[in-house]
Amino acid sequence: MSLEDDKADAGLAAGRAAEAKLGEVRQLLLNPRAETLDRATTDLAEVVAALTILVRSARQTGDQKWTPAALASFHGIRSAARGLRPQIEHASKYCLGWIQVRSGTGYTRQGFPVFVENEARSSFEG
User: Fold this and answer.
1) Cβ count within 10 A of residue 97
2) Which of 24, 42, 50, 115 is an S-S bond match for 18, by CB 3.0 to 4.6 Å?
3) Those residues with Cβ within 8 angstroms of residue 54's Cβ, 6 or more apart along the chain or in another chain
C-alpha cells in the first residue's frame, strides 16, 4: 500500500466517523438538556476535525480533483447535516418562544420578539 492509499483510507474513515457523529448528534437533539447539548457540541467539534482530515486526504495529488470515494463521503455527510437543520431551527424557535413568554411584550412587524428592559425596582441612596 502506498502513502497516498493510506491517506485516502484515513480520509474515508474520517468521513464515515463524521457521518456517524452527525447521527449521534441528531439523537442527542431529540431530548435537549444541558448535558446532551454539551455532548452535541463536543461531537460537532469532532465532526469538524474529521472533515479537516477528509479534506486534506481527499484530493488526488497533481490534478487537485476529488476522488470518487471522497465525493461519496462528502454527499453522505451533507445529507446527515441537512437532517440536523430542522431540529436546530425548531429548537431555536422554541427557546425564543419561551424567552418571549417570560420577558416579552409582543413582536415586531418582522416577527422578532420585543423585550422589556427591566427598570430598577429600588434605589440606593447613600
Assistant:
1) 12
2) 50
3) 11, 12, 14, 15, 18, 70, 73, 74, 77
pLDDT at 22 over 90: yes
Residue 65 lies in a domain: yes
For residue 114, what is the enclosing H or E element? strand 113-115
The predicted-structure confidence for 29-85, as pLDDT tens digits, reads as follows 888 777 888 898 899 999 998 888 877 776 655 556 777 777 888 888 889 889 888
**HSE (CB half, 13 Å, CA atoms) of 82?**
6
**Gap between the Cα atoms of 120 and 62, Å rounded:** 67
| HEC secondary structure over 67-110 | CHHHHHHHHHHHHHHHHHHHHHHHHHHHHHHHHHHHHEEEECCC
38: containing domain: 3-85
Q: What CA–CA distance (Å, rounded) separates 106 from 124?
A: 32
Q: At what angle do helices 34-58 and 3-28 cross, to 10 degrees?
A: 160
Residue at 52 is within a domain: yes
